Amino acid sequence: MTDTIIYRTRWADMDPNGHMRHSAYADYAADQRVVLLANWGYGVAEFARLRLGPILFREETKFLKEVSIGEEIRVDGQLASAAPDGSRWTIVHTIYKADGRVAATVTVDGAWLDLDRRKLTVPPAELAAAFGTMPLYEAQPR
């Protein structure tokens, strides 16, 4: 099973300059994470049942190549780091153009929030272990 998702950019993703707006990159990265979590059995309903939610502390995007309307892009996520108990993690999403060139990277630092206590918490062991199945991030040469 691959964790890569292919999308086609939409009109709503574009800015007045005719290329993908900065926040659309973050939206595609977030969608890839949500799909990945759901594939692991942690969809929105399961998080609601557990009273647990992912939160971000930092999100950084590096823009490398322009993306236009109607373009096919491929988004993946790789694990850059994770605490042994899964309480904190860093994921690097790479957004590729159809020809394989890297258009952008979106790096996120996150953790888990206990939705009742409004405090950081440790996720269920199965969820923490699932992070270990992610491919590990290796910086790509420019």
Automatic annotation (TrEMBL):
CDD domains: 4HBT. Transmembrane segments: none annotated. One of its GO terms (molecular function) is fatty acyl-CoA hydrolase activity. It comes from the Bacteria. SUPFAM superfamilies: Thioesterase/thiol ester dehydrase-isomerase. It holds the Pfam family 4HBT_2. This is Thioesterase. The lineage of its organism: Bacteria, Pseudomonadati, Bacteroidota, Cytophagia, Cytophagales.
